[in-house]
Amino acid sequence: MPEKDAIRCDACPVLCYIKPGRMGACDRYGNREGQLVRLDPHILLDRAMSRGDSVVPFLEREREWDGNLVAGPESFVTAIGAGTTYPDYKPAPFIVSSEVEGVDTVTVVTEGIFSYCGVKVKIDTDRHLGPETNLVRAKGEPVGHVTTGEYGSQMLSLGGVRHLTGGTRHEGTITCETLLDLCNGKAVELAIDQGVKIVVQAGKAPVVDGVQEERMRVGCGSATIGMFAKQWFNKVDEVVVVDDHITGVLSEHQAGKLLGIPQTGIKIKGRRSTPGRYFQVAEPGNAWGGTNIQTPLSILKEFNRKIAWPGLRLLMVSTTGEHHAYFELDQDLQPLAKELPASLNESVVRIKENCEPALCTVLFMGGAGGSLRAGVTENPVRLTDSVRDALTRVTCGGAPVYIWPGGGITFMVDVTRMPENAFGYVPTPALVAPIEFTLKLADYAALGGYLDQVRSLNAIVSDKTRLHHLAARANNPWPLSSAKRQERS
Amino acid sequence: MRAQIKFLPDGRRLHLQDGPIDLIIEAFGSSELVKAAYEAAIRRFVTVLDELCSELNLLRTRVGPNTPKPQHRIARSMAAAVAPYSARTFITPMAAVAGAVAEEILAAMTSVVQLSKAYVNNGGDIALYLSPGERFVVGMIARPDRPSLFGTATLCSSDAIGGIATSGWRGRSFSLGIADAVTVLARRPAMADAAATIIANAVNLPEHSSIHRVPARSISPDSDLGDLLVTEYVGELSVNDVELALANGAAVAECLMSESLIHSAALRLQKVTRVVSARNAVLSLRRANLSRSLSHA
């Protein structure tokens, strides 16, 4: 029954026989001169549209496509909706050519299924979220862990193959769902063992135990002393900047010494590091400066009676300026709470001002596996080499990625720079993420690319399949620009 | 795993695709209910194509008195939907595949939670659920390559319409007729799908010189229509010819309506629309030519 020119499509169990120039039952795969090709790009980034036009959904257009908006390099075909080759070693769903700055350029477009993937979440807060290495849970299932904290931020590492497929089925499902939501910019509630409940959403402030975080600290307690010592000089006798990491004390700190600020006889609990700098004044927590301190005086011992004096003025403030208190010593050298003088209030406001808005940022991290790379070239390792040699640019939904050095193609991308809802999943469970490889046609030939699969951008557009035009994001480099041009812009 | 599962860019509608099956799903209700419904849809969806393909040969075979019954639920629903036509014309269960799949996925959703409304759109064949008091506006397009609405239909829960299907020679499946689009409302999606095929086949002018027909197999070697002639191109027709073709289709539609196989139908050919519906039926469908609302395409 199968005719001479028809080819059998094995992309799905329908196993259509497709004649030349025709498509299968799915309208996705077709027979192009005897080759089975994938024919339905979903999303094109449109450079012209980023200059102000809004998104044009394909199905609302009244007129037939006139070809004007897409003039070669003004459009970039993203992999979103392109489909995937896994687990077959077929050429990628789209291999698109266009001329960029006079050079024939190829973009290989595919949606990768990433079993090895996860997200790194940076949460701008000094609050203690939970002990390092402790499990992070979503809906009770372990989905990741607390990892090394960064300056002013706590870090979570979520997902990864051990949670996706190495645990129970339910753990895998919940992990996949958590990653998908985070990558698609949705809010996710996480609970950390022996720590807090936190709501995380890319590009939004974290909500820790129901309290929305406002600002990042300007620096550690010691750094804050350094930055503000001059502004406190002569307005107050002693300042303690409370911080879970390093609590600073003005009169003992190098900055205070340089200004000639006299000793005050203050005594701080905790372990002294260098003069005026104290570790571990309290336990980590969600109160003052990321500690568990509710009443700041609890970190002070009795003043040294030989040095302190009645009337001594003491300011205690957290690293974000959110907490502050002002005391003066009475005749018995006991601190009495007083209203903060206006002259000091200014400095507290300035600390606050210098604290940047607290955000959650989500980087998707994944590795392009062998079968994905085999969809680009018959010789997958050459693709790795080409990426390494910067001949091939990798983008994720048109957004720039950071490629991790070393073997393979392991990359990170800021999910907020990608088009909305760019991620999908398969029930494996694994995440589906778009990935595009752009390189010169000549380089593509050299690395063993599927030259017979290359289609021109105009051919894709004139297919009038499922194009969805999106404005390119202004803060992303245009995926087809040369590196040089990006530096200038 | 082949199936692709994702949300459309609006973050609201679920898009499920596996081989030729392409579903757009939207459920209405509280966010937990919607989520549970979507999860149920996904769970059911992932095995659908394999089930259908396991009986594909049978499903592509003309239904007759001695044809064996298929095994799987969706396949049985397809066979049941085309059974009323098997004695009078050539039909295979594949004529109802899109509607039957939409119906099954909708049932998977509505059986786990109480939604206010929901639809599963399988490439234009729609399964619809409306709880009491809910309404749904459907837009009708004649040419998928040039989407613009030629009419809308407002459906109420009291209309008891669970399926909407469209068939025409410009669509993804072959048609023996020349209708640009026949949209059918019926109790169940698989019934609507089969009926739309039958009516669209009937919108026809035998032996007309402006109509180009080719054997189905010459385009698609494994088509269930075999060597039957399917419409490949329709040239400009005279006003009389358009009326005649529509009358042929409308006669069949009225017959199906009298047998309670369909609720109503809108037939479209070269910018002329003919509506077939009972007097007390969905009145807004009668306004099809007037309404240009883009509220729900």
Please outline what is shown here.
The complex is a heterodimer of chains A (489) and B (297). Chain A is of the alpha+beta class and 489 residues long.
Tell me about this structure:
- The complex is a heterodimer of chains A (489) and B (297).
- Chain A is α+β, with helices and mostly antiparallel strands.
- Chain A has 3 domains: 22-115 and 369-488, no CATH class; 117-216, no CATH class; 221-353, no CATH class.
- In chain A, 16% of the residues lie in helices and 32% in strands.
- Chain A has an 11-stranded antiparallel beta sheet with strand order 16-15-14-13-10-11-12-9-26-30-29. In chain A, strands 7, 8, 27, 28, 31, 32 and 33 form a 7-stranded mixed beta sheet that branches. Chain A has a 7-stranded mixed beta sheet with strand order 20-21-18-17-23-24-25.
- With 297 residues, chain B is an alpha+beta fold.
- Helices cover 31% and strands 26% of the residues of chain B.
- Chain B has a 9-stranded antiparallel beta sheet with strand order 1-2-3-4-5-8-9-12-13. In chain B, strands 6-7 form a two-stranded antiparallel sheet.
- In chain B, helix 5 runs antiparallel to helix 6 (189-202) and helix 6 (189-202) packs antiparallel against helix 8.
- The radius of gyration of chain B is 18 Å and the shape is globular.
- The A-B interface holds A 1-3, 6, 11-19, 22, 24-28, 55, 59-64, 81, 83-84, 111, 113, 184, 186, 419-421, 423-428, 430, 432, 464, 468 and B 1-9, 11, 18-20, 22, 42, 46, 49-50, 53, 56, 145-148, 172, 218-222, 294, 297.
